[in-house]
Amino acid sequence: MDRSRRYQDREVQCRVTDSPSAMAALHQKQHHREEGDKTPPAKHYLSLKWAPPKLTVDAPGWDGDIPSDDLDQDDVPGQPLLPCATPDISLFHTPAGYENTTHGRPSIVPPPDDHDGIHQEQDHEFVEVTGVSETEARDLLLNYVSQQCCYGKAAAKNMHIMTIQESHSLYYKLETFAEGRTTSWTYEIYLGQKVEGPLSGKSPLPWEVSVKPDNMFENQVKRVEVPYTACVKSCYVCNATGYNRCYKCLGRGRIRCKFCGGSVHVQHKDIFTRQFCSGCSGTGRIRCRTCHGDGRIPCQICDGYRQLKWFIELCVQFTNHTGEHFVDSTSIPHDLMRQAKGQIALQNGGKRVKPIDSYPNTEICEGSKKLYNIQVNETVNEKILQQKHTLHVVPVAEILYAWNGKIYKFFVYGHDHKIFVPEYPVKCCWGCMIL
Ligand SMILES: [Zn+2]
Ligand SMILES: [Zn+2]
Ligand SMILES: [Zn+2]
């Protein structure tokens, strides 16, 4: 496609250039305005924007490739096509430490060696946990049943409690809060904003840029411009013209009338005569509504402003890696167990924690070590900021009882004596339906 003529666009009031001296003059003007220059701002940037012409256009302004014939309305795409041009980032100045940075695909920057990363030896002190009183079991079940509209009290009142078996369920949680960093060349429309390039200073290395999370142990993404990497370039899609070929009419400004198919005449249904098509006023073509007949539309990348500010963007992703391990022989759902009020047998945190290795229940020690290794693998390209782990011990009483010749069970768990009843013998849902 011959784009050379685009630069001769008669509507451009101000010629666009990449020459450093011209851009320096632009920045100088902008700088004066920011410094408190009282003169009205120059219309320099506004006049750079390309705008489509008025509604009535008889001849398309697009001067590049066009198809040899009109297109049918149904043939043309309904949505703008994404530009296929790609920017040549090899023309940009790449500071040290950013050699692998590309456009469109984030480049992972592994963290520098972390010598503080070895966990300090921590003594795990575990708290003794007391059990649940057996005598409360019946009252708890009665109370529970009374709150269920369809449960009869008979079984709870008259059940024969066979055994009450007390145990503890263990709920272990390990969290590793880490940050990962990626870089990529990105751009924004240039509207005269601040541009600090390599001449203004030396860019810090990716892990030297200070970015802090708002809250610890919460996922968050922060994006910042790496200092002194910016430059202004002509838009790589429209070559600084501000417009592209209309995606509807492909530059012709007209499309074939769908009523007469371009034949100018239409056949009347009842009368065997032909008449001029009213859809196109007998011309066989209609003006493209997308470009109003001009064949050009504002560039989707620069929105008509012709220039882009390019810079290296640092993306910092804070991730809270979380793992849980339950040691629980009951059928109490884990969701309930997470909310249960238990005793905290262990809770500590720091730059690194040490996996549990001395708890009497070896399953917890194995679970802690396994989760620790998983999270170390997950954070291989990240920098660990904090770790913490907690071991909850939840007292559980499993009550077996007989009613009407059958055996049932329920659980009382937690210090606040929550009850979990997987099945109850006296239910009468018809009562609710009648009410
Ligand atoms: Zn027509
Ligand atoms: Zn068009
Ligand atoms: Zn553009």
TrEMBL record:
<protein>
    <submittedName>
        <fullName>Protein SSUH2 homolog</fullName>
    </submittedName>
</protein>
<feature type="region of interest" description="Disordered">
    <location>
        <begin position="1"/>
        <end position="44"/>
    </location>
</feature>
<feature type="compositionally biased region" description="Basic and acidic residues">
    <location>
        <begin position="1"/>
        <end position="13"/>
    </location>
</feature>
<dbReference type="InterPro" id="IPR052789">
    <property type="entry name" value="SSUH2_homolog"/>
</dbReference>
